[in-house]
Amino acid sequence: GAVVSQHPSWVICKSGTSVKIECRSLDFQATTMFWYRQFPKQSLMLMATSNEGSKATYEQGVEKDKFLINHASLTLSTLTVTSAHPEDSSFYICSQGRGGNSYEQYFGPGTRLTVT
Amino acid sequence: GQQVMQIPQYQHVQEGEDFTTYCNSSTTLSNIQWYKQRPGGHPVFLIQLVKSGEVKKQKRLTFQFGEAKKNSSLHITATQTTDVGTYFCAGREGPVWGAQKLVFGQGTRLTINP
């Protein structure tokens, strides 16, 4: 079954508004979660690494003031797209990693954001 | 920074034909992972390769990690319609364990004519 959930699965918002996306770890306490963005027919681009109890680490070119990440607990990380614009329309996916020698990432089902 | 290139971008085959996608990194990787994303879905972990020259098989899928740990391949034998999707490789430079970020290739979109 799913180990990472995301909410909402899709959202349509007007330009200038803010949207919060939740990523929950269902069966694992994740100190680190990752946020990706995927444009249609393109690869996954890492936006930031979310660290529980501390500030997120953003990738180069990602505006931290526009994409606010909060990882307040071991099971919940949120991504808020502030003052969204049509160019922010994309598929946003979170993931968590499982450690050890089989380090794999479990991806959430994704959130499709459309900004009109 | 680290770059992971994947080819081909698209591949269309007849059902029953074989399929291969290749992944090349600009730097030496500590490990490489492969994911499959079905249309409209999210990436699902397939496998991780860690050792130089490693070969792993999952039924009709064969994964290989190059000797220099800079390239990898995924080969599917006798494709089936259930194999449709986009296959991504993802490389990591850091240690095998720990929360190190992955760099994804562009993906290879596989379509199959039944």
What would your notes on this structure say?
The complex is a heterodimer of chains A (116) and B (114). By secondary structure, chain A is mostly beta strands. Chain A is built from no helices and 11 strands. In chain A, the strands form 2 sheets. In chain A, strands 2, 4, 5, 6, 9, 10 and 11 form a 7-stranded mixed sheet that branches. In chain A, strands 1-3-8-7 form a 4-stranded antiparallel sheet, with no helix packed on it. In chain A, a hairpin with a 2-residue loop joins strand 7 and strand 8. By secondary structure, chain B is mostly beta strands. Chain B has no helices and 11 strands. Chain B has strands at 4-7, 10-14, 19-25, 31-37, 44-49, 55-58, 61-65, 71-76, 85-92, 103-104, 108-113. In chain B, strands 2, 4, 5, 9, 10 and 11 form a 6-stranded mixed sheet that branches. A 5-stranded antiparallel sheet of chain B has the order 1-3-8-7-6, with no helix packed on it. In chain B, a hairpin with a 5-residue loop joins strand 7 and strand 8 (71-76). The N and C termini of chain B lie far apart (41 Å). Classes of the chains: A mainly beta (116), B mainly beta (114). The interface between A and B is medium-sized, with 26 and 26 residues.
Short descriptors:
heterodimer; A: 116 residues; mainly beta; 4-stranded antiparallel beta sheet; 11 strands; 54% strand; globular; B: 114 residues; 6-stranded mixed beta sheet; 5-stranded antiparallel beta sheet
Biggest β-sheet description of chain A:
7 strands, mixed
Strand content of chain B: over 45%
Q: Identify the biggest protein-protein contact and residues per side.
A: A-B, 26 and 26 residues
Radius of gyration of chain B: 14 Å
Helix content of chain A: under 10%
Total E-strand runs of chain A: 11
> Taking Cα atoms only, what radius of gyration of chain A do you get, to the nearest Å?
13 Å
**Structural class based on helices, strands and sheet pairing of chain B:** mainly beta
**First CA to last CA of chain B: what distance?**
41 Å
User: What summary fits the major beta sheet of chain B?
Assistant: 6 strands, mixed
N to C succession of SSEs of chain B: EEEEEEEEEEE
Average of per-residue pLDDT values of chain B: 92
Number of helices of chain B: 0
